Amino acid sequence: MRPLRSSSSLAGTITRGQARVLQLAAQGLLQAPRRRARREDLLAAIQRMRLLQIDSIHVVARSPYLVLYARLGHYPPAWLDVALEDGRIAECWAHEACFVTAADFGLHRAWRAQSQGKHWADRHAARARDNNLTEMQALLEHIRATGPVRASDFERVDRGVSGWWEWKPEKRWLEAWFASGELMVARRERFQRVYDLAERVLAKLDPPFDETASALSAEELRRLFILDSVRALGVTQARWIADYFRLKPSVDERELAPLVATGELLRVQVAGWDNAAYVHRDHVPLLEKAGAGRLRATHTALLSPFDPLVWDRARASAMFDFDYTIECYVSAAKRRYGYYVLPILHRGNLVGRLDAKAHRAEGIFEVKALYFEEKITPTARMLEEVAHAVAATAAWHGTPTIRLGRCRPASVASTLRAYWRA
Q1: Do 16 and 271 meet the contact criterion of CB atoms below 8 Å apart?
Q2: Which PANTHER family does UniProt cross-reference here (predicted)?
Q3: Which residues contact 77 (CB under 8 A, 6 or more apart)?
Q4: Which helix (DSSP H) or strand (DSSP E) does residue 183 occupy?
Q5: CB atoms < 10 A from the CB of 89, how many?
């Protein structure tokens, strides 16, 4: 890599492989944990990523728990629930519905206040208030008088309908108040949201809720989220930045130029990319190590479909040459790989994917299909480390017996089965 320079010109040139390890280091996925996880490691992982996307699909572990497992190794999933109930983290709309640390929540609450009406949740909330304001206010007063509630506390009248688009009225109203900030999520019970008045949830945040963020302008908040996105990504092109926090409009190089001029961002060239890339100044030591070949990726892990490393299809393609679509929202006839497909990270590359389902009552982790990428020729070490990652994930999940379906290439199936029988 050419020497770094503190100017608006390119700070240096790195290979795409060096860019990959820099991104993995920033995301906490470069190397496997060297010790057993502690509670503070969970908070540090969320802070490193800046957010943790929530998704309720539980074919395998629900996404936030799996994202953390890829970074922390074996840890009690209840730690996440306790962190929410204790106010160490909070729920908000960010990339999508996300957990963020209490330290960052003030920025997100201020941003939501500044950008009301721009998110789809705001539009749903506005429609709900327009059509049911009296009932919604009564619900708010009920919570004020009697305490937190779950959507399941309210009986459904129209039992013939189903699906998220057919939420019962109380669920829609609770979500509308959550979107507009009057309610927050106090805790979760079996992953169901428990809603309470925002003032009561804010009072228990640790560290305490920072009200000074509300004085920041929309421009100042956007600048902070751009910097946070670049820090979380390690290295990124301008066109990928807005997606991290769903910023609108998109971010371009002209908007980043002042941040380069102040030294908050460095502009680098990644070999083979037509566009410049950007690195946060906090990652200059990692950038220098990557450029000198002193960052080594040794981690093998199964990733959630909603892991920040892969949720942007264009970024995953450019960074890892990995074409990935979250297919659980695609009709069965259009799926290529399966319903809940986990990318396989191996020593700095995305080498394959597996369609998995956990049968919790039977203790079985079903691998319906495991596909190595067509350009990958699995080595003995790769097979062993992938097999170990699957077995470790299954054991942590409480489904230690692994049942394997088809493989690509088919020749690796016997090797994997032999490893899991041993």
Answers
A1: yes
A2: CYTOPLASMIC PROTEIN (PTHR30528:SF0)
A3: 61, 65
A4: strand 183-189
A5: 29
Residue located via tokens 């608006």? 8
Q: Round to whole Å and give the CA distance between 89 and 216.
A: 22
Exposed (0-12), middle (13-18) or buried (19+): which is 336, by Cβ within 10 Å?
Answer: exposed
CA dihedral 280, 284, 290, 291 (to 10 degrees): 110
Closest by Cα among 155, 189, 147, 191 to 171: 155
Q: Residue 398 is which amino acid?
A: G
Question: Comparing C-alpha atoms, which of 379, 402, 382 is closest to residue 391?
Answer: 402
Which helix (H) or strand (E) covers residue 218, if one does?
helix 218-233
How high is the pLDDT of residue 157? 64
Strand-pair partners of 183: 197
CB 144 within 8 A of CB 136: no
What letters, b where the CB count within 10 A reaches 16 and e where it falls short, cover 363-399? eebbbbbbbbbeebebeeebbebbbebbbbbbebbeb
Tens-digit pLDDT profile for residues 346-367:
999 999 999 999 999 999 999 9
Residue 155: predicted pLDDT: 83
* Spans of the chain below 50 pLDDT: 2-9, 161-165
d(CA 115, CA 243): 16
- Would you state the pLDDT for residue 330? 87
**CA 398, 61, 370 angle in degrees (round to 5)?**
90
Q: Tokens in use for 213?
A: 């963020």
**How many other CB atoms are there within 10 angstroms of residue 166's CB atom?**
12
- Among residues 11, 20, 83, the alpha carbon closest in space to that of 46 is found at 83
Q: Residue 101 and residue 58: Cα distance in Å, rounded?
A: 23
**pLDDT tens across 206-264, in order?**
999 989 999 999 999 999 999 999 999 999 999 999 999 999 999 999 999 999 999 99
* CA–CA separation, 183 and 174 (whole Å): 7
What does the DSSP 8-state code read for residue 368?
Answer: E
Q: Which amino acid is at 362?
A: E
DSSP 348-383: TEEEEEEEEEEETTTTEEEEEEEEE-TT----HHHH
> Beta strands of 38-88 (E only): which ranges?
52-53
pTM assigned to the model: 0.94
